[in-house]
């Protein structure tokens, strides 16, 4: 996992007088599951929107596989995004939602239906292909959104708080589902969350943010053993103190927590 997929150099972003990102630099490894963890307003969603190309940075640059993509539009970055509310078309079935993007692409138009059906099968939704979003559970809607993102073949997938609307049992189930999807498709995943337990349960590394800056970027075990500062100690460790004991057996095996 040492090969760099993304290199982010000195990103800055302000809205008026308010600095949202302050000289943010980090590297994302190929096929890594990186969680960006922080409270509301820390800059994590703005960072994600700059990576995908929906917002422009005031300074700095983004490189993907060594190529500067800072000025490229979203459609040319080879990335996909799953939003917090999934942004599914309510008037389309699960199949129609996945097929939609494919039909807009000259490259994929001819076999759009077959590819969409195959993707729904791969995310375990073949039997729900003809259902509209309101007939699907929250977890099923999330899988439709992921299948739609995967349809265009991105090698980097960005997820913005994708489990915040799910109940606790569904969130636990979807953690395993998401990791299995990543394994199957070989994707690099950047996962935005404010949930400490979620980040520790899924990530190869965790980037803790506050005030528009990186407070620590490290493996889960390393953050537990050596929090970089008082903020990381308070925001991360004190919030998962009760659950750390159940996570430690995985960490001791060198696995993702």
Describe the structure.
With 257 residues, the protein is of the alpha/beta class. Helices cover 35% and strands 25% of the residues. The chain has 9 helices and 10 strands. Helix 5 (168-185) links the parallel strand 7 and strand 8 (188-193). The longest helix is centred in the last third of the chain and has 18 residues, at 168-185. The radius of gyration is 18 Å and the shape is globular. The model is unreliable at 247-257 (pLDDT under 50).
Features:
globular, 4-stranded antiparallel sheet, single chain, 257 residues, alpha/beta, disordered C terminus, 10 strands, 25% strand, 6-stranded mixed sheet, 9 helices
Topology of helices and strands:
Layout: E1 4-15, E2 18-29, E3 33-37, H1 44-52, E4 59-64, E5 67-68, E6 79-82, H2 94-103, H3 112-122, H4 138-150, E7 156-160, H5 168-185, E8 188-193, H6 196-202, E9 205-210, E10 213-218, H7 220-225, H8 230-237, H9 244-252
Parallel strand pairs: 3-8, 3-9, 6-7, 7-8
Antiparallel strand pairs: 1-2, 1-4, 4-5, 9-10
Q: If strands are numbered along the chain, what order do they take across the biggest sheet?
A: 6-7-8-3-9-10
Q: Biggest β-sheet: count, sense, barrel?
A: 6 strands, mixed
Number of helices: 9
Question: What would you call the shape?
Answer: globular
Q: Portion of residues in helices? A: 25-40%
Residue share in β-strands: 15-25%
How many runs of DSSP E, i.e. beta strands? 10
